[in-house]
């Protein structure tokens, strides 16, 4: 479970139960990620985590990175695509096409974030139930 708390005006901190935290704020706010940036980072990070062992074992290098960006709708209120690009050194790889096939298959089958984005997961919002107030005595 992730808990997000307000720590200041337009400033929030998300924490997990393992002690990790990340600052969340509005787009462009110094020292924080916007919610959309976190979504983009999750897609790129999931692709990296999923492909890490395959790539490192076949390339013999531990250099692996990803870039991603949110492509938003004209209104800017929806993310319609998150292209993710993996980067790693192919100079020591005998069959780069085979590696590409294996990495692509692994990410498509096992990357929870990108699989979820393809499925258009729902995000039901639960709001607190208003307290019942007693009628004013006459």
Write a brief structural summary:
The protein is built from three helices and seven strands, in the order βββαββββαα. The strands form three sheets. The protein has a three-stranded antiparallel beta sheet with strand order 1-2-3, with no helix packed on it.
Write up this protein.
The structure is a single chain. By secondary structure, this protein is of the alpha+beta class. It is 35% helix and 22% strand. It is elongated, with a radius of gyration of 21 Å.
How are strands sequenced across the largest beta sheet?
A: 1-2-3
Helical amount among residues, as a percent range? 25-40%
Report the principal-axis shape: elongated
> How many E-type strands?
7
Based on secondary structure, the structural category is alpha+beta
How confident overall, as mean pLDDT?
Answer: 93
- Structural Rg: 21 Å
Could you name the ranges where pLDDT drops below 50 across 5 or more consecutive residues? none
Beta-strand residue fraction: 15-25%
Instruction: Kindly report how far apart the N and C termini lie.
Output: 47 Å
Taken in chain order, the helices and strands follow as: EEEHEEEEHH
The description of the largest β-sheet is: 3 strands, antiparallel
Total DSSP helices: 3
């Amino acid at each position: 479970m992730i808990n997000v708390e307000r720590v200041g005006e337009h400033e929030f901190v998300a924490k997990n139960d393992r002690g990790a935290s990340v600052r969340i704020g509005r787009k462009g706010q110094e020292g924080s990620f916007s919610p959309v940036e976190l979504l983009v980072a999750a897609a790129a990070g999931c692709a990296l985590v999923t492909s890490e062992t395959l790539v490192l074992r076949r390339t013999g290098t531990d250099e692996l990175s990803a870039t991603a960006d949110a492509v938003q709708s004209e209104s800017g209120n929806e993310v319609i695509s998150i292209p993710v690009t993996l980067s790693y050194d192919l100079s020591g790889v005998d069959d780069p096409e085979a590696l590409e096939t294996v990495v692509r298959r692994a990410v498509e089958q096992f990357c929870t974030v990108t699989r979820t984005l393809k499925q258009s997961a729902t995000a039901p919002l639960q709001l607190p139930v208003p307290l019942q107030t007693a009628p004013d005595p006459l």
